[in-house]
What does this fold into?
Amino acid sequence: DGGITQSPKYLFRKEGQNVTLSCEQNLNHDAMYWYRQDPGQGLRLIYYSQIVNDFQKGDIAEGYSVSREKKESFPLTVTSAQKNPTAFYLCASSIPLGAGSSYNEQFFGPGTRLTVL
Amino acid sequence: AQKITQTQPGMFVQEKEAVTLDCTYDTSDPSYGLFWYKQPSSGEMIFLIYQGSYDQQNATEGRYSLNFQKARKSANLVISASQLGDSAMYFCAMREGLHTGGFKTIFGAGTRLFVKA
It folds into this structure.
């Protein structure tokens, strides 16, 4: 079945460590996104990528890094520079919009819950 | 300034009754899309319904309908015949620049819906 997978589901990190969250999709979507969700709040955009080898910062990119070497994969690294990384991280993908095209919704993965010990 | 406002942190509804979840938005872009997502306790985001700024009719998807009032900049979600499985967080979201390849989706803070038996 087509979809988005994120791993691991739960991740624990010690302070000062970098950690990488995996996101893979087999929907053949060009665009991929990373969001952060804090308890009781909405989603905030960290990074997004429209095509392979290209990505842009979202609203809260500081302390995070990404790569997009393959269409299917968009891993997110939470670096030690991220001061408060404990949160729920959601990856999404979508078909890019073109002029005159109709909407397209984002398809989300199941999320990774990151806890800093 | 908040671009998406959901003023109801929590809502209760009796099973089989209808409920309206409020959403107001702010944009100067004439081309935008409005989305509603459901997030159960498991964490995944489930797309429910979409309304484009140029759509003449209100969107409907099964038991979900979107009450789109463009002049008031509101996009309320109506759930008819509530079911116990509708208990979840509901997020309103907006994407601007829809016909120029806009990628950024902005989410509201969400409304938690409780369906009572």
